[in-house]
């Protein structure tokens, strides 16, 4: 964890951003009090959990039966 003043942060912002992207936690201090934490905003990747919809989807028993409208074409 790195602590710096507001003035230092404004002078070295691009370096601080790179450090945060690299995993460092940057705390910006004002009047010897922590006021801002600089951390990266990374896109959240949501992976599907297989089986999570179990029981939520139901198919009718005649799902794969030929449609009435197409019966004449099937003969």
UniProtKB/TrEMBL annotation:
<dbReference type="Pfam" id="PF02604">
    <property type="entry name" value="PhdYeFM_antitox"/>
</dbReference>
<comment type="similarity">
    <text>Belongs to the phD/YefM antitoxin family.</text>
</comment>
<dbReference type="InterPro" id="IPR051416">
    <property type="entry name" value="phD-YefM_TA_antitoxins"/>
</dbReference>
<dbReference type="Pfam" id="PF10047">
    <property type="entry name" value="DUF2281"/>
</dbReference>
<protein>
    <recommendedName>
        <fullName>Antitoxin</fullName>
    </recommendedName>
</protein>
<dbReference type="InterPro" id="IPR036165">
    <property type="entry name" value="YefM-like_sf"/>
</dbReference>
<dbReference type="InterPro" id="IPR006442">
    <property type="entry name" value="Antitoxin_Phd/YefM"/>
</dbReference>
<dbReference type="InterPro" id="IPR018739">
    <property type="entry name" value="DUF2281"/>
</dbReference>
<feature type="domain" description="DUF2281">
    <location>
        <begin position="48"/>
        <end position="73"/>
    </location>
</feature>
<comment type="function">
    <text>Antitoxin component of a type II toxin-antitoxin (TA) system.</text>
</comment>
């Amino acid at each position: 964890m790195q602590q710096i003043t507001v003035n230092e942060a404004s002078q070295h912002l691009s370096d601080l951003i790179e450090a945060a992207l690299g995993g460092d936690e940057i705390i910006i201090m004002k009047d010897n009090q922590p006021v801002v934490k600089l951390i990266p905003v990374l896109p959240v990747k949501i992976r599907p959990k297989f089986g999570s919809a179990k029981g939520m989807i139901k198919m009718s028993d005649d799902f794969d039966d030929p449609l009435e409208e197409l019966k004449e074409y099937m003969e």
